[in-house]
Automatic annotation (TrEMBL):
<protein>
    <recommendedName>
        <fullName>Transcriptional regulator MntR</fullName>
    </recommendedName>
</protein>
<keyword id="KW-0963">Cytoplasm</keyword>
<keyword id="KW-0464">Manganese</keyword>
<keyword id="KW-0805">Transcription regulation</keyword>
<keyword id="KW-0804">Transcription</keyword>
<dbReference type="GO" id="GO:0005737">
    <property type="term" value="C:cytoplasm"/>
</dbReference>
<feature type="domain" description="HTH dtxR-type">
    <location>
        <begin position="30"/>
        <end position="91"/>
    </location>
</feature>
<comment type="subunit">
    <text>Homodimer.</text>
</comment>
<dbReference type="InterPro" id="IPR001367">
    <property type="entry name" value="Fe_dep_repressor"/>
</dbReference>
<keyword id="KW-0678">Repressor</keyword>
<dbReference type="InterPro" id="IPR022687">
    <property type="entry name" value="HTH_DTXR"/>
</dbReference>
<dbReference type="InterPro" id="IPR050536">
    <property type="entry name" value="DtxR_MntR_Metal-Reg"/>
</dbReference>
<dbReference type="Pfam" id="PF02742">
    <property type="entry name" value="Fe_dep_repr_C"/>
</dbReference>
<dbReference type="GO" id="GO:0046983">
    <property type="term" value="F:protein dimerization activity"/>
</dbReference>
<comment type="function">
    <text>In the presence of manganese, represses expression of mntH and mntS. Up-regulates expression of mntP.</text>
</comment>
<dbReference type="InterPro" id="IPR022689">
    <property type="entry name" value="Iron_dep_repressor"/>
</dbReference>
<dbReference type="InterPro" id="IPR036421">
    <property type="entry name" value="Fe_dep_repressor_sf"/>
</dbReference>
Length: 148
């Protein structure tokens, strides 16, 4: 009997299956930044009543022009509203996206913790994993945790 961790010497998977996997990964990367930004903006507003470009840049460890470019994209996508000299506000669509991203993050982090991963590592790892898991996998995580 072979272990799940032992290398398998099987045929390559079908090309269509490869395409699906790579397409899913590309789509996740495309939405990952938007999700991180709206989640952070929502958290900043909840915590201090406002979200400013300088605070976003500091929290994400990026330059303000990088943040300005993303905020323009999020505004164009209807996820936020930028008001000159007044900061950044969430739209309903932005709040829904932030809440879903936050829920996925908490679920992945809780699953990792239940597997015995340290709190800090689980938090850091969940930050990347949350954007790449399917709803089927999230449902399995919920069952594993006993929440579903």
């Amino acid at each position: 009997m072979t272990s799940a961790l032992q290398p398998r010497h099987e045929r390559l998977i079908e090309p269509d299956s490869h395409v699906q996997g790579f397409r899913k990964a590309r789509d996740a990367r495309r939405t990952e930044l938007a999700e991180d930004y709206v989640e952070l903006i929502s958290d900043l507003i909840a915590d201090s009543g406002e979200a400013r470009q300088i605070d976003i840049a500091r929290r994400l460890g990026v330059a303000q022009p990088t943040v300005a470019k993303m905020l323009k994209r999020l505004d164009e996508e209807g996820l936020i509203v930028k008001r000159p000299y007044r900061g950044i506000f969430m739209t309903e669509a932005g709040e829904r996206l932030a809440a879903e991203s936050r829920r996925r993050h908490r679920l992945v982090e809780a699953c990792l913790r239940k597997l015995g991963v340290s709190a800090e590592t689980a938090r850091l790892d969940a930050e990347g994993i949350e954007h790449h898991v399917s709803s089927e996998t999230l449902a399995a995580f919920e069952r594993f945790l006993g929440d579903g």
